[in-house]
Amino acid sequence: MGVPGQLRAPEPPQPSPAAPAGTRLTVLAVDDEEPTLLELAHLLGEDQRVETVLTAPNATEALRILHGSQADATTPTVDVVFLDIRMPGLDGLELARVLNAMADPPPVVFVTAHDDRAVDAYEVGAVDYLLKPLRTERLSGSLDRTLALRAARRAENGPPAAPARHGAEPGGAAAPPVARRGAPAATTDDEVVPVELAGTTKLVPRSSIRFVEAQGDYARLHTNEGSHLVRIPVSVLEERWGEAGFVRIHRAYLVSLPLITELRMSGSGYVVRLGNGPSAVELPVSRRHTAGLKRILRGRPPRPQRGPEDGPDGPVVPR
Question: Are 108 and 127 in contact (CB under 8 A)?
């Protein structure tokens, strides 16, 4: 029985460039469109220089595979990632920036139907930029570049460095130490969060974060100015930031309690509203978190400034 997400390269119907012993590649193909992903995996598998093709339908699954290959000696190390750019959630360019934070990042080849992101792709260190529909000769050229890059790296650096096990943020900024289960929240240490922005480490004040969105083993921090991806699970931030006023409302969301202006019914469930006016945002509240959130909001001290949607004692909370 085969391993899920892993395809063994079939014997090619026609000869392709021969690969010397020990140089065949493990390739990870990432695309949210299944027909395109299957075609890409098939074309890669026909090249004799490819040993194994791993597949992922999104960036989050790709990260799981990549971290597994670096942490588990029995899992093949990914030598190159063939990556779509436009995907829901974490897109290809964001994933490439995350990969650049690894101790030994795999080369990235972008595969896309759009020709307007080539500059962005090469700025994040892409080895190649392929346009759909794919041509076998272009794919072969990308593998040539990958093998040449791998040979150059080995000649310069020797054996690959040991991977960082945990805590590196996208772009290389160190993440706050991870708290163990049951440990007290380290609120003072997290008053600012280092994030990577266009090659610069930016310090984001925790007080500016409106809510946190879970993206696999990563978290996206949302502020009024934009959002930032950090390598730390939302469950860890929930544990660490509870004393700083952050509360879990859904498996996907952690919100700043002082910013909640309303909790109301919407359809068959509840939503919270953060802020007022054009910058306000509404997020779903899961059933398992609704009762606890109501208790917290009813017991919360009055907010010093009330918006038009606030009740006399703070946010509007249905009974």
Answer: yes
Whether residues 200 and 128 share a domain: the answer is no
The answer to whether residue 164 is domain-embedded is: no
CATH number of the domain residue 10 falls in: 3.40.50.2300
Helix (H) or strand (E) segment spanning residue 132: none
43's enclosing H/E stretch is: helix 34-45
Residue 269 sits in which domain range?
188-298
Q: Are residues 20 and 134 in the same domain?
A: yes
What is the Cα–Cα distance from 158 to 264, expressed in whole angstroms?
Answer: 59
Which residues does residue 205 pair with via DSSP β-bridges, in sequence order?
192
pLDDT of residue 226: 87
- Condensed to tens digits (0 to 9), the pLDDT of residues 213-265 reads 998 878 899 998 888 888 888 888 998 898 889 999 999 999 999 999 999 99
CB-based contact 261:280 (threshold 8 Å): yes
Q: Which residues, 6 or more positions from 216, have their beta carbon under 8 angstroms from its beta carbon?
A: 60, 61, 63, 64, 90
> Per DSSP, which regions of 22-124 are E strands?
25-30, 50-56, 80-83, 108-112
Q: Are residues 192 and 142 in the same domain?
A: no
Tally of domains in the chain: 2
Does residue 277 form part of some domain? yes
Residue range 264-284, pLDDT digits in tens: 998 888 999 998 888 899 999
Q: Which residue has the higher pLDDT, 96 or 195?
A: 96
Q: Are residues 84 and 221 in the same domain?
A: no
pLDDT value for 70: 62
Predicted confidence at residue 170, as pLDDT, reads 41
Same domain for 13 and 153? yes
pLDDT at 26 over 80: yes
Instruction: Tell me the pairing of strands 108-112 and 80-83.
Output: parallel
